[in-house]
Amino acid sequence: TTNTLMKARIAPLGAVHILILAEDHTHARRVEEVRRDFVANVSHELKTPVGGIALLAEAVLDARDDPEAVSRFAARIQVESTRLTRLVKEIVDLSRLQVADTLHEPELVDIPFVVVEAVDRVQVAADSRQIELEAVADERAAVFGDTELLATAVANLVSNAVNYSEPGTRVAVAARRVGDTVEITVSDQGSGIPAAEQSRIFERFYRVDAARSRSTGGTGLGLAIVKHVSATHGGDVSVWSEEGRGSTFTMRLPAASDRAASDSDRQPVG
Ligand code: ADP
């Protein structure tokens, strides 16, 4: 490598230029590939509920004389359109996150508030599946960032934990300050994730069991959003899981220092 470095340094300017251009080109091509994959996936994913709605509408027209069948089909149209709305929202969220990899106006985010907000959003689903949700949060946990994005990310983790668990089990959410880091963990006693799949579940539209994901209204985008939100806040997300025992997802984010937090208490940012 010393050799190549030397060569690069003594190469005539023109040659260095070409080298850099070639690298840019490869990067641009990769970005273009990722974009094209995303567009292909999006249109595929949209076709499923749209096609379903079209077929159901036809069925409604055919069943005009059977009011019971009409209401059954109409109810399914409602389910499919809810799914479609959620899918479109998540695609837009994810595209925004991919375009802007930094936050415009970071604010001081109270993590206990984020945890309560996320749990609130999933409570009804948890109750209906008889899953006990418990949450604890260290009141010193604060980060700089976007409250709504963080609430969405934590809610995605809690919602997965609930959807991939059996009735009668527990889901625990905990937020603590560990040194300069805020750790948010979501643990379940659910189905777990096979080791070979664990590195792929954060990819857009990747699902271990597509049928199960669809039946719970999953879009395959939840964890991709969590990953992007964590990265945008200068942190990351990881998973520990054992099949049949459960999973723990951990978001690690740089903590807002106590000093910054109390300064911003006195004079609001922005
Ligand atoms: P989905 O909308 O399908 O839940 P996600 O991106 O949130 O999409 O998750 C991707 C996949 O990872 C899921 O389809 C599921 O197979 C797996 N998964 C995510 N969270 C859990 C969990 N807590 N327990 C078991 N499997 C999970």
UniProtKB/TrEMBL annotation:
Cellular location of this protein? Cell membrane
**Swiss-Prot/TrEMBL catalytic activity:** ATP + protein L-histidine = ADP + protein N-phospho-L-histidine
Q: Which GO molecular function annotations are given, in alphabetical order?
A: ATP binding; phosphoprotein phosphatase activity; phosphorelay sensor kinase activity
Question: Where, if anywhere, are coiled coils annotated?
Answer: none
Swiss-Prot/TrEMBL keywords = ATP-binding, Cell membrane, Kinase, Membrane, Nucleotide-binding, Phosphoprotein, Transferase, Transmembrane, Transmembrane helix, Two-component regulatory system
One record GO biological process: cellular response to phosphate starvation
- Enzyme Commission number(s) from the entry: 2.7.13.3
Name the GO cellular-component terms.
plasma membrane
The superkingdom of the source organism is Bacteria
Annotated Histidine kinase domain ranges read 41-257
Broad EC category:
transferase
Region: Disordered, residue numbers: 254-270
What is the recorded name of this protein? Sensor-like histidine kinase SenX3
The organism encoding this protein is: Knoellia sinensis KCTC 19936
Summarize which stretch of the complete protein this chain spans: 117 to 386 of 394
